[in-house]
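# step 3/5: fold
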Amino acid sequence: MTFFSPTQVFLNYRGEQLRYSFVSHLVDAFERNEINFFVDKYEQRGKDLKNLFLRIQESRIALAIFSTRYTESSWCMDELVKMKKLAGKGKLHVIPIFYKVKVEDVRKQTGEFGDNFWTLAKVSSGDQIKKWKEALECISNKMGLSLGDKSYEADFVKEVVKAVRSVVAEIGLEEEENHFGKKKRKDCKCELPDFKKSRTKKL
């Protein structure tokens, strides 16, 4: 049974590491489930980061897919800062995905993830570094999903699809309540409804 969603999901990830592996499998699953999404491979070459910011603003859900090489890219980091800003305003639901990287390494910029972050920091401004660190700490503290080295990726993709569908349904409920003038729900802002009282789910 398919599940059509007009709600756009923005995928924030390190292309060189994940584009032809995990993200391609996730995109296939989204297409099979008729989940509307945006991934940067569909952008025209030569456009700048402002165009991606616009894509983020057009979305209601964003997946921050953290991997060991995520922090090699200033674009990934700048997108994350934008996502944090919109999430803080209640305009975007952010789901952190920890792909074979520890939550603590993302939060504290340690391990291989941290090594890449500090390498990037050496050629970045103090203001950029501050915003990046705040975004990493904020987003990694949200409820999300984590894939370990010995886990099955196919099962993990199914869990991500399930989580996205859950948030899409929650957004629909919020919009319905707002339409009828009821009190706006606050319990789903940037969180996964299924995991509100639990830590990041590991597979």
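# step 4/5: annotate
Residues 153-179 form the longest helix (27 residues).
# step 5/5: archive (pending)
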